Amino acid sequence: MIRALLCSTALSTLLAAGPAMADEQKAPEADVAGKAGANGVAELVVTATRTAQPIQTVGASVTVLTQPAIEASQAISVVELLAQQPGVSFTRNGGTGETTSLNIRGAETQHTVVLIDGVKLNDPSSTQGGFNSGNLLVGDISRIEVLRGAQSTLWGSQAIGGVVNIVTADPTKPFESSIDVEGGARKTGYLRAGLGGASEKVTWRVAGGYYTTDGVSAYKYGTETDGYHNAGASGRLRVQLADNVSAEIRSVYSRGKNAFDGFNVDDAEFGRTKELVVYSGLNFALLDGRWNNRVGYAYTDTDRKNYNPVLLTQPLTFDAAGKNRRWEYQGVFAINDAWTATFGAEHEKSTMRTRSPTTSKPNPAFGTGRVGVDSVYGQLRAEVVKGLTLTAGLRYDDHDTYGSHTLGQAAAAWSLNDGATVLRASFGQGFRAPGLYELFSQYGNQALSPEEFDSWDAGVEQRFLGGKVKASATWFHREADNEIRFFSCSSGSTDPLCAPGGTFRFGYYNNILKTKAEGLELIGEAKPLSNLTITGNYTYTDAETDAGANKGKQLTRRPKNMGNLSATYRWPVGLSTGVAVRYVGRTYNNDANTQVVKGYTLVDLRVAYPINARLEAFGRIENLFDKDYQTILNYGAPGRGAFVGLRARF
């Protein structure tokens, strides 16, 4: 950590001696969850450079969902909202609340970094260090940014497929409050409320919510339903200590219980998950605002337990906990009107413990692991000629076990014809050390090698008819070496890793050499009438194994074809009606591509009516045609359901 801080200090000292012409230049805020992230302005992007910048200067492919768009979707689960965006798919072991994997551009779920208010949520105790999105409800969220492609320079080695940054609501009035309530099919109910205020010195908000549903059977052919219940709370406080100094603390907590089924069997098992996210930081500006700084501490704690009540003497069947502690510094320096530097240092410690008790061995020892990573990064962004913004950065990681690695990233955005045309291109490298579960669990393999990635994309965005029509196309390509997967052991196997110490195990994690993914994202938006909006996207993803017996086979549960189409019409009386269609193509449930999961098309209807300036009634029908579908073979999914609700803002 000392070496990281020295490198960052040296860089900042060099930048502080920059040209005198920057004296009046103000640096963007060095705060990934600050005002720019919560003001609902879609033309500003924070996640791409960890500072607020206009979207037309961003070289990466990014989607911004503001609070009006989130509310209009009427989505309950964040992952279902994300699945309406280009390049994003998910799989889930049943209905809402079940184990959920999020995939961006065909990458594994552990290759996507999910953040809440800038804090990484990835769980060190999960099977491959990824984040289970099943417990992530919309709640008090005001903004979501989805950044596609490798983003490891600023967000760490795990940000290979992309980054999802979720920002909770930040008050803008002296006092404001909100209440949302809804209910419907499958005895579903959702209540959430929040209140807060903003003054010259203090900004604060607290919020809470409770969700419950009887759900559907996780086993597709089961007869009993598997319900889900979730209680959550969030809060934030920012105090202006001086004109150029502020302190803040933010926290999000959730506690969920989900019933689930075993493999191809209906049973009474259930799990409990507790997740805590805490961030505290100090923000201060130097040199009359040219140099903005942030010093912070982030902490995440995930605790998971599974129970089988049929096993009366030993109902606990799984017990795991993962913690992550991160100390970080980030600086943003305005070198001059055209050049901005972002730089920082991080020290991260991750720990996990996991065990699987059985009736014959009710109190086994925990498999434990810990790892530390020290990092420094730097990035320069410059408008080299009018409309052409170039971004380039480097990241240096010093891993406790796997040594040092240096990664690079570069991007370009060229805004032409007064912003009517934007050309974009980016290149990024990725490095992922094996996760703690992959190394130290009962299926661990301490001989694993790190995963390495190269990724690039290029695209064009074009506006027509004075901005009434917008279309974009992006081609992406990613190559991976040493990707880690679970290797199953057959009975009687002579593989020494199948029976370490003479004790047989069902499998272990191993490097499977290479994979690759490439594809095309098409996005369109049209406003042919002032009160009619039509949006759509289509993604083609060719994600396949690139070595071994399954070379050329499609990666499991990754659809080649996906598409979304929606139309919303606002009537003169204020009534808003909409239809949304989502198509997901055929996938495969195994590496050999012999188990097919059929594609499906879902249609949803939405309606909303403002009763007055403070109250809005809304409703929807999900899966209008009651389509029978699966995201994972033999796991259930919700059928048709109707829901109504009321939204109040004071």
UniProtKB/TrEMBL annotation:
Protein's membrane topology: Multi-pass membrane protein
A Pfam family recorded for this sequence: TonB_dep_Rec_b-barrel
Record GO cellular component, one term: cell outer membrane
Start and end residues of each TonB-dependent receptor plug domain: 55-163
Top-rank taxon, per record: Bacteria
Keyword terms, alphabetized: Cell outer membrane, Ion transport, Membrane, Receptor, Signal, TonB box, Transmembrane, Transmembrane beta strand, Transport
Signal peptide, first to last residue: 1-22
Subcellular location: Cell outer membrane
GO annotation, biological process: cobalamin transport; monoatomic ion transport
Main location: membrane
Record region (Disordered): 348-367
InterPro entries recorded: Beta-barrel_TonB, Beta-barrel_TonB_sf, Plug_dom, Plug_dom_sf, TonB-dep_rcpt-like, TonB_rcpt_CS
Domain TonB-dependent receptor-like beta-barrel: 220-624
Sequence motif: TonB C-terminal box, positions: 633-650
Residue ranges, compositional bias (Polar residues): 353-362
Family statement drawn from the similarity comment of this UniProt entry: Belongs to the TonB-dependent receptor family.
Protein name: Outer membrane cobalamin receptor protein
Organism: Caulobacter vibrioides OR37
